[in-house]
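Need tokens for this chain, all 103 residues.
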Amino acid sequence: MLRNPGVNFQREVLGVHVAFDDLIVTKGDPEVRDFGGHYSQFIKRDGVTIAWMFFGIWPYPFAKGKALRVLLGWKTWDAHVKDPLQITCRITLWKSFVPKEKK
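Here are the structure tokens for all 103 residues:
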């Protein structure tokens, strides 16, 4: 809590509580973490989007194992397990990763 005193504000005030019957809609390929690309997820309740997430990673062509990584919205990963969903805005300009081949 000393490192990030705003975490309670992010979770309790800005966070989104997901009900078991809320719908999770994914657009794109969530496996982009391994090879680059992007995808979005939307949490819908009664047809209305209550939370969303955009995740993208773009490997740099000039630096092996380095990429631009963007995570915006709410952390919808494991939406029916984690409560509440924490809001995020993370842009990593020089993310390290292990390059993998797309299946």
